[in-house]
Amino acid sequence: MNGEFIIPLNGLAAGENEFSWHAGKEFFEDFENSEILDAQLDADVRVEKSGRYIGVDCYVEGEVVVECDRCLDDLVMPVDVEIRLSVKYGSEESSEEPQPGEREVIFIPETQAELDMSQIIYDYVCLSLPMQRVHEDGECNPEAMKYYGGAVEEVEDEAGADAGENPFAALKDMFR
Ligand SMILES: [Zn+2]
Fold it and tell me: Biggest alpha carbon distance in the chain?
């Protein structure tokens, strides 16, 4: 849809400006992402303009559907991402990684009339997803587990050994 994910920098009034966008399955298809099978995300954006300062606070909430690494069935993952940007005019490259709690600074050319947030939202959402995407224990598709269960169990044990520092994991097993 026209205007979706676009902040019209030239037309911004001083003070607070609000936008809300929706990102569905097509959003990820446009990025040729085949890992995200479906999505229902809402982006609430607050843009503050004060002189030459433009601050963007963007909250993305909702869920995406990916494939479970264990049973290959659909797995719904919650998404809750906060994107805080400071927009600056100029040709400099952003050289430093933002510190925790700081705004990420993005530089745009003076002539640029609008800021397309879609790539930024896409990157933040994808980065927020865990590397290992599996259902909670016992919630995998039992039919699929008949076929895949044995082989994947070993992989999971290795991962479990890596995470074995957690003393509560042992306690949890005792009370099963
Ligand atoms: Zn599963």
Answer: 64
Residue type, 48: E
Distance 166 CA to ligand 1 centre (A): 23
Burial of 56 (0-12, 13-18, 19+ CB in 10 A): buried
For residues 112 and 176, give the distance between their C-alpha atoms in angstroms, rounded to a whole number: 60
Can you give the pLDDT of all 176 residues of the chain as single tens digits? Answer: 457 899 999 889 999 999 999 999 999 999 999 999 999 999 999 999 998 889 999 999 999 999 999 999 999 999 999 999 999 887 776 566 667 778 889 888 888 899 999 999 999 999 999 999 999 999 999 988 887 655 544 444 444 444 445 555 555 555 54
144 CA distance to ligand 1 middle (Å): 8
- In the chain, domain spans: 6-136, 141-176
Residue 16's SS3 state is: strand
Q: Give 119 Cα–ligand 1 centroid separation in angstroms.
A: 29
* Residue keyed to tokens 């224990």: 137
